[in-house]
């Protein structure tokens, strides 16, 4: 099994070169916001371990909101962020990027401050990496190659099923016939189903240590946490009752720019950016919560769903600017309207937990209640904190997270040696 | 929030009635040339309200405005900006919206007969009358309008096809039931599908399914003393209250194309042809459900026995779509699910499902909860009704264009109409399907290289049949988003125009 990882390079943009940078980025696209996979600057499709990538300009349009909390806005800066979700270690991808797209990346990053022309690109990217506080992968171990191979498998099987008649065949017969078909396609080299690579033992050890270490640690400090809990709750409620909501509707032109980058393919990108509520209370609450959420995404939510949401391929929460700001990025299926609907109807509690520590979020109650349930305020809040992705790459356009899971099940069936009638009947319904 | 009694007197009748007995109708698309004169006319307009009249009226007039229209009537800009973003932008104001609604290719707004860029009407006057009484009334209304600063852009005709839409299927079978009395509690999760919907889903100014009032223009009480009060904002008058948004779309139907396709797919076997057509629609041609009626009633009271026979079902009992295909129009348009997947009962089970566990099959929990996405349909057919034989013939060169003047009412265009149209009808991945969109409505334009011209018909014993190369049967010919004001709101707008 090949574990997935993330990479995020952040560097401030040289103000005088912002226009040039935007122009460079736009040139990588085939449609507004959607990358041309083979563009000469950064030919994404040449990196076979890359699932998603994007360039976003971090520009805090909501900085002034801090004043409502009696704090001064952070100094205005614009930074370029480059994000990748990939198979295998990020170090490896970073090396490959520097090697094979070095010229293009240098051109892009040279528009940033702190980019010496003679620097070692790979090292520079590593120095400017911002690790995710929480990272979510829809399916741990599912590689780009696997997604593509299994999608081809499904297409071939659907075509095969429709072109031959199975009217009188029992499900068992259909299954056996398809197995034989796949075997012959594999022999002919028309279908490939690469077996999973062995799990790297280093990763496995680290993962086990994390799996058991974190609960152990929590157990150890739990007496302290428990002692602190009442104070925490009192403080929380005091703050919740007076924290200002800042939820005006986002500017129409801004929304239009965002929308122009959406729904061009079946999957969409989402980036959001905002300030934490000032003070240590919210900061430490969020650090703790993201740490806890990260435990669940690492060990529990890595099999097709994040709580009830099963349309997210990758997501991450990243602290920026000395943990004064939070950046969120995700790749999801369907329109933003349905994504937000899922947030509100299915996981409002989860969103509240994290985002209510952000400035201006709709009022919550005991950290998890209300908040996102205030539909319109929440939707306006989301839109206003969103950032347009200048360039976005999806290695598997048109294949939803649901498709991927179903395709894997189809493959499982093909590779199965024996299935009961009931199992076969369920399997056949996958087509 | 306390529910204040629905005020029928202040509402246009269309919110409550389909005016089925008024079988003749037409929709006048108008441009406003002279705001002051138009305002005067609007002040005296004989609007039909939602109050029950005895005897029932012989005719009815309903009025609605686009955003352009409100601006021309000099409604203050800050007031106009209180309407929803979709309404402000309009159906064609943003090509991103057109892409989401599937208005591309032949259905793209630049080809529209009305409502396209630069061709958006300011107002629609919808007039309904008893048989034989429309024409004279229409002429006199037209004269009055023309003398009052209005220009008639177009008259969208309708045809009474006897409760059947042009393909030949009984229409108007399933409608949400509005909670006029405030009986429905919107707090907490709903574990079963219900047809009763919070009034605020369809009428502005009342709580919606989230228990909140959908955004709409609020004006300080001093400036608008005779508008209704805003329920949720003290000291404010509510321009939206008792009004709603209306989505109007002219959808041309290729009736012969539809039946000839079904015919070709089934080797001209009459029964098989009908069966396929019914599977595409998701109901029998008679309006009966494809699923057996439920033994046990689930809907709330107040629905007739006939309605129970036609609508007392959910798709929980047809998970695999062997009775009604997942992709059938009616199943897409209203998947009849609840907030949680079937079988979530008790606290523990809810907790398990809430955190994403407890799924028992692959497609479980992938469709959004229906209660936030209902539409109140008020469309009318146009063109000529074909007999079953005519439908199968090649179209003569002088064939009358036929279709649906699709109209629906909703309080939140983005969450209701646009969501249904985008995610459910045009969506090529609805309910885990692939490569297909609504069999009736799909534009068949590829998305990211993925075809959308198939239609899957699951069968009880095994492999789904996938029908290939489904042609486009429906072309959009016009459309716009309107605000259908309450009666007092209309008077307010009329007065604004006269100042
Ligand atoms: C020319 C185009 C259309 C035709 C021929 C058509 C036809 C039908 C028919 C025959 C039914 C079943 C009868 C009934 O329940 O009333 C139906 C139901 C329905 N249609 Fe359409 N329709 C069209 C366009 C649309 C559009 C554009 C929408 C929404 C955006 C829509 C939404 C619905 C809904 C919500 C139902 C009720 C489903 C239920 O509650 O079970 N239809 N349609």
Topology:
The complex is a heterodimer of chains A (431) and B (499).
Chain A: E1 4-12, H1 18-27, E2 29-31, E3 34-35, E4 50-59, E5 78-87, H2 90-100, H3 102-109, H4 121-127, E6 134-137, H5 144-163, H6 171-187, H7 201-242, H8 252-259, E7 267-275, H9 280-299, E8 312-320, E9 325-333, H10 336-346, H11 348-355, E10 364-365, E11 369-370, H12 375-385, E12 389-394, H13 401-415, H14 421-428
Antiparallel strand pairs in A: 1-5, 2-3, 4-5, 4-12, 6-8, 7-9, 8-9, 10-11
Helix pairs in contact in A: 2-4, 5-13, 6-14, 7-9, 10-11
Chain B: E1 24-32, H1 35-43, E2 59-65, H2 67-72, H3 77-80, H4 85-89, H5 95-101, E3 123-129, H6 134-146, E4 150-157, E5 177-179, E6 196-198, E7 218-220, E8 236-238, E9 244-253, H7 255-265, H8 270-281, H9 305-311, H10 329-333, H11 346-354, E10 376-377, E11 380-382, E12 403-410, H12 414-426, E13 455-459, E14 462-467, E15 474-484, H13 487-498
Parallel strand pairs in B: 5-6
Antiparallel strand pairs in B: 1-3, 1-4, 2-3, 7-8, 9-12, 9-15, 10-12, 11-12, 13-14
Describe the structure.
The complex is a heterodimer of chains A (431) and B (499). With 431 residues, chain A is of the alpha+beta class. Chain A folds into two domains: 4-141 and 199-394, no CATH class; 144-195 and 400-428, no CATH class. Chain A contains 14 helices and twelve strands. In chain A, the strands form four sheets. Chain A has a four-stranded antiparallel sheet with strand order 1-5-4-12. Chain A starts with a strand and ends with a helix. The model of chain A has no long low-confidence stretch (mean pLDDT 95). Chain B has 499 residues and is an alpha+beta fold. Chain B is built from 13 helices and 15 strands. Chain B has helices at residues 35-43, 67-72, 77-80, 85-89, 95-101, 134-146, 255-265, 270-281, 305-311, 329-333, 346-354, 414-426, 487-498; strands spanning 24-32, 59-65, 123-129, 150-157, 177-179, 196-198, 218-220, 236-238, 244-253, 376-377, 380-382, 403-410, 455-459, 462-467, 474-484. The longest helix of chain B has 13 residues, at 134-146. The chains are: A alpha+beta (431), B alpha+beta (499). The interface between A and B is large, with 54 and 52 residues. The structure holds protoporphyrin IX containing FE. Residues 165, 167, 169, 171-174, 251, 253, 281, 283, 329-330, 333-334, 375, 377, 403-404, 406, 417, 420-421, 425, 440-441, 474 of chain B line the site of protoporphyrin IX containing FE.
């Amino acid at each position: 099994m090949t574990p997935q990882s993330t990479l995020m390079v952040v560097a401030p943009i040289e103000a005088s070169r912002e226009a040039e940078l935007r122009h460079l980025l736009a040139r990588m696209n085939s449609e507004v916001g959607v990358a041309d996979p083979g563009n000469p600057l950064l030919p994404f499709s040449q990196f076979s371990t890359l699932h998603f990538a994007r360039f976003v300009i971090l520009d805090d349009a909501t900085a002034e909101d801090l004043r409502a909390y009696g704090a001064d806005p952070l100094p205005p800066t614009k930074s370029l962020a480059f994000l990748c979700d990939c198979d295998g270690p990020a170090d490896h991808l970073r090396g490959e990027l520097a090697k094979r797209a070095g010229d293009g990346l240098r051109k892009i990053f040279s528009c940033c401050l702190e980019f010496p022309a003679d620097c070692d690109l790979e090292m520079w990217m590593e120095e400017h990496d911002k690790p995710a506080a929480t990272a979510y992968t829809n399916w741990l171990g599912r590689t780009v190659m696997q997604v593509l191979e299994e999608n081809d498998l499904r297409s071939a099987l659907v075509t095969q099923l429709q072109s031959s008649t199975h009217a009188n065949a029992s499900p068992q017969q259909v299954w056996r016939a398809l197995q034989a078909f796949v075997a012959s396609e594999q022999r002919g080299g028309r279908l490939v189903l690469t077996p999973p690579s062995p799990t790297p033992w280093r990763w496995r050890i680290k993962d086990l240590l994390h799996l058991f270490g974190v609960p152990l640690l929590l157990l150890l400090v739990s007496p302290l946490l428990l002692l602190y809990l009442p104070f925490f709750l009192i403080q929380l409620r005091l703050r919740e009752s007076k924290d200002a909501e800042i939820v005006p509707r986002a500017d129409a032109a801004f929304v239009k720019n965002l929308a122009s980058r959406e729904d061009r393919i079946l999957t969409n990108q989402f980036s959001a950016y905002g300030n934490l509520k000032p003070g240590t209370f919210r900061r430490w609450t969020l650090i703790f919560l993201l740490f806890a959420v990260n435990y669940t995404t690492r060990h529990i939510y890595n099999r097709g769903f994040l709580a009830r949401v099963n349309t997210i391929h990758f997501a991450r929460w990243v602290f920026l600017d000395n943990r004064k700001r939070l950046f969120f990025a995700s790749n999801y299926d369907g329109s933003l309207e349905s994504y937000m609907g899922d947030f509100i109807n299915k996981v409002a509690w989860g969103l509240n937990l994290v985002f209510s520590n952000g400035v201006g979020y709709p009022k919550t109650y005991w950290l998890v209640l209300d908040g996102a349930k205030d539909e319109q305020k929440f939707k306006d809040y989301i839109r206003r904190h969103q950032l347009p992705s200048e360039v976005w790459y999806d290695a598997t356009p048109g294949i939803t997270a649901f498709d991927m899971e179903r395709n894997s099940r189809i493959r499982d069936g093909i590779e199965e040696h024996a299935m009961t009638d009931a199992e076969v009947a369920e399997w056949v319904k996958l087509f | 929030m306390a529910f204040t009694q629905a005020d029928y007197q202040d509402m246009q009748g269309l919110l409550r009635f389909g005016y089925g007995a008024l079988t003749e109708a037409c929709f006048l698309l108008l441009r406003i040339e002279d705001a002051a004169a138009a305002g005067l006319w609007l002040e005296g307009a004989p609007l039909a309200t939602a109050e029950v009249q005895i005897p029932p009226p012989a005719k009815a007039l309903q009025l609605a405005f686009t955003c352009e229209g409100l601006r021309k009537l000099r409604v203050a800009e800050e007031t106009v900006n209180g309407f929803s973003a979709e309404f402000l932008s309009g159906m064609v104001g943003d090509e991103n919206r057109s892409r989401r609604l599937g208005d591309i290719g032949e259905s793209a707004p630049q080809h529209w007969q009305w409502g396209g860029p630069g061709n958006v009407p300011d107002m629609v006057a919808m007039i309904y009358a008893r048989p034989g009484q429309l024409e004279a009334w229409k002429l006199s209304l037209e004269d009055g309008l023309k003398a009052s600063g209005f220009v008639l852009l177009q008259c969208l005709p309708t045809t009474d096809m006897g409760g059947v839409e042009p393909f030949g299927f009984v229409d108007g079978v399933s409608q949400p039931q509005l909670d006029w009395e405030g009986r429905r509690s919107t707090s907490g999760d709903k574990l079963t599908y219900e047809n009763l919907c919070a009034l605020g889903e369809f009428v502005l100014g009342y709580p919606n399914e989230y228990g909140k009032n959908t955004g709409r223009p609020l004006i300080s009480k001093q400036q608008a003393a005779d508008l209704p009060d805003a329920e949720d904002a003290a000291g404010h008058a509510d321009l939206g209250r008792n009004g709603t948004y209306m989505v109007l779309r002219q959808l041309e139907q290729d009736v012969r194309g539809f039946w000839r396709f079904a015919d070709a797919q089934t080797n001209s076997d009459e029964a098989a042809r009908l069966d396929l057509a019914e599977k595409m629609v998701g109901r029998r041609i008679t309006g009966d459900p494809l699923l057996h009626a439920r033994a046990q009633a689930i809907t709330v009271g107040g629905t007739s026995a006939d309605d129970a026979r036609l609508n007392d079902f959910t798709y929980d009992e047809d998970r695999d779509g062997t009775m009604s295909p997942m992709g059938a129009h009616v199943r897409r348009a209203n998947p009849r699910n609840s907030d949680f997947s079937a079988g979530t009962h008790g606290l523990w089970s809810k907790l398990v499902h809430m955190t994403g566990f407890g799924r028992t099959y692959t497609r479980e929990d992938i469709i959004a909860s229906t209660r936030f996405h209902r539409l109140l349909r008020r469309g009318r057919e146009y063109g000529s009704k074909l007999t079953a034989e005519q439908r199968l013939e090649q179209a003569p060169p002088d064939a009358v264009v036929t279709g649906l003047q699709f109209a629906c009412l909703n309080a939140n265009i983005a969450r209701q109409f646009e969501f249904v149209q985008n995610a459910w009808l045009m969506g090529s991945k609805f309910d885990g399907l692939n490569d297909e969109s609504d069999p009736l409505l799909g534009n068949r334009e590829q998305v990211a290289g993925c075809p959308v011209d198939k239609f899957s018909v699951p069968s009880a014993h095994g492999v789904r049949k996938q029908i290939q190369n489904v042609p486009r049967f429906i072309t959009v010919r016009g459309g716009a988003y309107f605000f259908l004001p309450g009666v007092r709101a209309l008077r307010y707008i009329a007065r604004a125009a006269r100042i």
